[in-house]
Amino acid sequence: MTEAASAPVAGVFDRSLDWIVANKLRAYQWTRPIPTSLKIIHSRVYAQAITLGALAAVAGIETYHRSDSAETEDKA
């Protein structure tokens, strides 16, 4: 590989390394332990999402079952 072809790659690497060094404290804030109260809030939000997903799935199944039952009754 020629020097000219590897120069853009080295530039991207250097810029990335500079950004990581400049923003390392921001990354640290994402890796610190989560307090218990926040864990409880997250678990409640996840539970609500799972409940809504289950309700949507049941509604879809019921709708499909009703349309399938109506087609079966029409043929009979």
From TrEMBL:
GO cellular component: mitochondrion
A Pfam cross-reference name: HIG_1_N
Keyword Membrane: yes
Subcellular location: Mitochondrion
Main location per the UniProt record: mitochondrion
Keyword Magnesium tagged: no
Gene3D superfamilies named among the record's database cross-references: 6.10.140.1320
Annotated HIG1 domain residues: 22-57
Keywords of this entry: Membrane, Transmembrane, Transmembrane helix
Name of the featured protein: HIG1 domain-containing protein
